[in-house]
Design brief:
The protein has 7 helices and 21 strands. By secondary structure, the protein is of the alpha+beta class. Bound molecules: flavin-adenine dinucleotide.
């Protein structure tokens, strides 16, 4: 991102004055980039309201495009001004306390779902998995039961190759529609996207929609699998406290939660960030956690598991923004 650059070696008064001027300049650039959009544009938007963790500082600007055309317009204007965009669904990210410079995009207005022939469903990027799952159940379509209880958007779930022990996104994705950095749309078949554990190498750009290949099934059976899995989650995961899903990837064949619990860290707390007492791979916000608390807790968990079990835990959570 090219806005807000500040020279070094200055007195603090000079620095403050340059910082004020460069922040004015950055704000002007951001106003130009967001001019003429049909969707909502919110300056200094508190991102804790946009994350399931309820943690994090503000975005310089949060844009909620009205539709795909609006998003493409934003991409073109951002590219011309060399301003980077970050897309947020909000359920697997930790936004740092300083927030995110530049533009954060929420696709929460892109929420159309269309049924296509042969059990194919097209969902716009901002459709959440619970909504998509309900839609497929109502059509007696099987293939997404594994996703019961995952709160992310369908696009976020493709990018993360979200999954559970019952299945993962790559099993259901047929193709994705991507708005490229130059603001043009292209459709990419799933066969051209390398999927791996909690990651998909999606071409550069923003996912605007996903085609899912589902399977005609029996509504009662689908519902039973979904209900059972939701009950299992309720019994084993801290769903009543703000969190961002699993903090660490499972170092297969082991499980991060088992290693953290074996290291004696269940319930360990820094500030209001705590290793869940219910499931050790979840970090919960007990009310007023700061991202710094969460980061210190993550570092402590990693150090302890490394020294006790010799395993280096890899983050599943995406950490974004400024300290
Ligand atoms: C209670 C709870 C339970 C969970 N259970 C599971 C689980 O069982 N399995 C699992 O895999 N995950 C789980 N998660 C985590 C989370 O829901 C998934 O990782 C999901 O895929 C994240 O989707 P999101 O839309 O919130 O994206 P975010 O978390 O906001 O973003 C994740 C990444 O995707 C990128 N991204 C998002 N949208 C787009 C887009 N349109 N185009 C391009 N890039 C994009 C972001 O920039 C970021 O890099 C859980 C989370 C919670 C809170």
């Amino acid at each position: 991102m090219k806005v807000g650059l500040m020279p070094s070696r200055m007195s603090s008064a000079q620095s403050r004055s340059v910082a004020a001027r460069s922040s004015d300049c950055a704000a002007r650039v951001l106003r130009t980039v967001t001019a003429g959009l049909k969707g909502q544009v919110r300056f200094k938007a508190p991102l804790k309201e946009w994350t399931s963790f309820r943690v994090g500082g503000p975005a310089d600007v949060l844009v909620i495009p009205h539709d795909v055309e609006d998003l493409c317009c934003l991409l073109r204007q951002a590219r011309a001004a060399k301003v980077r965009l970050f897309v947020i669904g909000g359920t697997n990210v930790l936004v740092r306390d300083g927030g995110i410079r530049g533009i954060v995009v929420s696709l929460s207005k892109l929420k159309a779902i269309a049924d296509e022939p042969n059990a194919v469903v097209y969902a716009e990027a901002g459709v959440t998995m619970p909504v998509l799952l309900q839609h497929s159940i109502s059509r007696s379509l099987s293939g997404l039961e594994w996703a019961a209880g995952i709160p992310g958007t369908v696009a976020g779930c493709v990018v993360m190759n979200a999954g559970t022990r019952l299945g993962e996104m790559k099993d259901a994705v047929k193709a994705v529609r991507i708005a490229s950095p130059s603001g043009t749309l292209k459709d990419v078949p799933a066969s051209a996207i390398p999927f791996s554990y909690r990651h998909a190498r999606v071409p550069r750009g923003i996912v605007t929609g996903v085609w899912l290949q589902l399977i005609p099934g029996v509504k009662d059976h689908i519902q039973t699998v979904v209900k059972d899995y939701l009950r299992y989650r309720k019994d084993t995961q801290p769903l009543t406290m703000p969190n961002a899903g699993c903090a660490f990837k499972n170092p297969k064949p082991d499980a991060a939660g088992r290693l953290i619990e074996a290291a004696g860290l269940k319930g360990f707390r820094i500030g209001d960030a705590q290793v869940s007492e219910k499931h050790a791979n979840f970090i919960v916000n007990r009310g007023d956690a700061r991202a710094d608390d969460v980061m210190a807790l993550i570092a402590h968990v990693r150090r302890t598991v490394q020294s006790k079990a010799g395993v280096k835990l890899e983050l599943e959570l995406k950490i974004v923004g400024e300290p």
